[in-house]
Amino acid sequence: MERSLNTLLVFILSCVLLGALWMQFIVGEKPCPLCYLQRLGMMGLGCSLLLNVRLGIRKAHYGMALLWCFFGGFIALRHIALHVCPEFPASPWKPVLGLNLYTWSFIVFSLSVLYIGLLLISFDKPVEKLHLKKFFWWEIVVFSLLLFVAFVNILATLNQCGLGPCAD
Amino acid sequence: MMAGLFLLMTASIGSLFFGRRGWVFWLLAAAFVLGFALLWYHATDYLKIIW
User: Fold this and answer.
1) Which of A2, B2, B15, B44 is positioned for an S-S bond with A157, CB 3.0–4.6 A?
2) Ramachandran region, residue B34 (left: φ > 0; alpha: ψ -120 to 50; beta: rest)
3) Which of A40, A75, A158 sits opposite B9 (nearest CB)?
4) What is the pLDDT of residue B51?
5) Which pTM does this prediction carry?
6) Taking CB atoms and an 8 Å limit, are B3 and A48 in contact across chains?
7) What residues contact residue A21 under an 8 Å CB cut-off, 6+ apart?
8) Burial class of A126 by CB neighbour count within 10 A (0 to 12, 13 to 18, 19+)
9) Is the confidence at residue A130, as pLDDT, over 60?
10) pLDDT tens digits along A46-85
């Protein structure tokens, strides 16, 4: 049950990342460096939770997931703060359901912290021995989605930024 | 540089498939540190726009 709940959150994160790719390639809204870093945060969070799925539930894996939530949430909060600043240009991206993508990103990271906290409280059991677990088919789908999104982002950043830093 | 970060992340996810916990940890740690470094780089750029 706990393993499935970890997979569910990774699936939701993968869908959010696919949505970001949709906005980039179909709608045509180019991401900024902060947007890319928030995507990285979501991938790091997903990868940390997949450690639970692949190797067994451990506090260290949840700890890593929370660190990535901090990373992504901090960057999202900075992104919000920049656009609130009067001297900063208005957000060039179209809002989704009334909120900008960086605001949604902050909501995703905050809810992920809440989700992980609830998982830790609900499944309070002795530490299990680490061993390689076999993937179920839906876990392979989720794992492949996350890997696909990570790989596409390599190509997208190479195309947009080249090997140097991305333009602001 | 940004592509390098995503490369680290992809390598981390790939290592996970093979059950290489140590690799996953170190690749994620590297991505984490470099991500903050890149944030600092861009932050100093944004400061120039505001000031």
Assistant:
1) B2
2) alpha
3) A40
4) 45
5) 0.88
6) no
7) A149, A152, A153, A156
8) exposed
9) yes
10) 999 999 999 889 999 999 999 999 999 999 998 888 888 7
